[in-house]
Amino acid sequence: MARYEDRDRDGGTYNQDPSAGSGSGGGGGTGGGYDKRGGGGGGGGGGGGERDGPYNRGRPLHRRPVTDYGASVGKWMMKRRMNWRGQNIDFLRPAPGFIVDLLPPAAYLENPASSLPTKHIHASLNKIKHPINVVKWTPEGRRLLTGSSSGEFTLWNGMGFNFETIMQAHDCAIRVCQYSHSGDWLLSGDQDGTVKYWQPNFNNVKVLDAHKEPIRDLSFSPTDAKFVTASDDGTLKIWNFNEGVEERALTGHGWDVKSVDWHPTKGLIVSGSKDHLVKLWDPRTSRCLTTLHGHKNTISRSLFQPTRGDLLATCARDQTCRIFDLRAMKDFCVLRGHEKDISTLAWHPIHPALISTGGSDGALNHYLLDESPQGVNASHTSSTIIHPAASIPFAHEYAIWSMEYHPLGHILCSGSNDRITRFWTRPRPGELDGFRDRHHIGDEAAAAMGTYDRRGRRNRQEEEEEEQDEADALVDQKMPLPGQQPQGIPGFPNMPNMPGLVPPLPMGGAVPGLGDLSSTLAGLFNTGKLPPPPPPPPHLQGGPGGGGGGPPPPPLPVVGGAIPPGFFEPLHPHQISAFP
């Protein structure tokens, strides 16, 4: 049976032809899957075969959220050689017919706006949901690694976004993950201050007790021979990677250090702290080179520009992101547009002027640094205020903790406190529906426009699960705690709760099926078939030295001035005769 699929390729051709099938001939061989006649190519002289079985045109095709960059990269490799010979790359027009001509972001270096990831393509959730603290693409871009507050590593497919595997990496929340520049090693830090070494196959080879407080960030040196860690204990530590020993400690911040980054090509370290300061360090002498001021609240992220290395981006909880020029040691851009604190940022790996920020309210903004506001000359101002080139105000429901671009630059991944990992890509030519979804205009407006089905199957399932969780929580709250007695005794209304109160059997009564229990036990004791019972404790024995008997039993509850039916006034311990 032929396999039909609708592959949403980023920049490549995709097939929706239902007649694509398989065929065989001669010496066998399957037909081409993209031939409308179902004809087979390939070995054995095959071809000309029809599709297997009738096609049900009444059943819609299932769209698979697959982003395959192979076709666009292959087309770009051919056109790149043509461009080298003097021919220009075709101009991309905003029409669906030009989807097949869409190339990777590296082909549009002069047009970074074409790589703005504003289209939501998939949301990945674990079966047991936890906040996502870290998202990290593998060096080759085939998979995405996420670290959660439960200490678990989860791997997602980088093209189909489906779940691949999960493992328990740490005993507490994972705070940071970082691949080496060579791609041969992975470092992870957790809430307990532990750093772990991982191989590409996720084999743990070393564990370091780096700090006594949570590790907030870490970064590799350009040669991968060293790495630096930042912690809530207010210090940064430089470690020898091969030996796993501490070489230097950078002290100078007056509060928790929230971020750190090592320059991609230079011996320069940047750190951001809760004391509102951004510091630049010399890793060879442990000396603070300079302190950058400008933010008015906790620094949440600080990253060097990965492509050129001339710029430094910092974001803070003062709702701003600042771009510093390392050659002038001053900020020349202030990025505004967030209504709440900015929790993270990410540089584009291809376009040096494209940067994305995530807020504590779940908003996601994209900025183009080479576009100045209208009517403002950037050369005449000390720092230019730049507003978002594209904004996604409802990207997540809660704070975005981590973001990272795919190595090719066509996909942006974001992890949030709402326990969801979302994938964003650039819209295809002529595609405008993505700007009218619920992530851009909200649930209510999208439902009114028909771009969001509030009662869809998946949404209904999520709402039913939430209602069931709420019902279970209410039932658990109504259940008595261990050792707690019910509020009343069945058959006796308005009976106050008295822990330990159990209505005794009527005196002289017999247990059903056992006859007279007292005479039976007395006979067993007399014949020696049962050992005699131990004497009562001294404080319950009568006479001198015994305390004159134990305390009287608690009084029975009185309902309407009379003892309830079935209750008898208990005897005093002196009046209870022991068994012979």
From TrEMBL:
Recite the UniProt keywords alphabetically.
Chromosome partition, mRNA processing, Nucleus, Repeat, WD repeat
According to the lineage, what is the superkingdom? Eukaryota
**Amino acid composition bias (Gly residues), ranges on this chain:** 22-48
Which terms under GO biological process does the entry name?
chromosome segregation; mRNA 3'-end processing
- A GO CC term? mRNA cleavage and polyadenylation specificity factor complex
Please note every region of biased composition (Basic and acidic residues): 1-11
Region Disordered: start and end of each range? 1-67, 443-472, 522-580
**Start-end of Pro residues biased regions:** 530-539
Give me the WD repeat coordinates as residue ranges.
Answer: 125-157, 167-199, 208-249, 250-291, 292-327, 393-424
**Which InterPro entries does its entry note?**
Pfs2-like (IPR045245), WD40/YVTN_repeat-like_dom_sf (IPR015943), WD40_PAC1 (IPR020472), WD40_repeat_dom_sf (IPR036322), WD40_rpt (IPR001680)
Q: PANTHER family from the entry?
A: PRE-MRNA 3' END PROCESSING PROTEIN WDR33 (PTHR22836:SF0), WD40 REPEAT PROTEIN (PTHR22836)
* Protein task: Required for 3'-end cleavage and polyadenylation of pre-mRNAs. Also involved in chromosome segregation where it has a role in chromosome attachment to the mitotic spindle.
UniProt protein name:
Polyadenylation factor subunit 2
* Natural source organism: Tuber magnatum (white Piedmont truffle)
Taxonomic lineage is: Eukaryota, Fungi, Dikarya, Ascomycota, Pezizomycotina
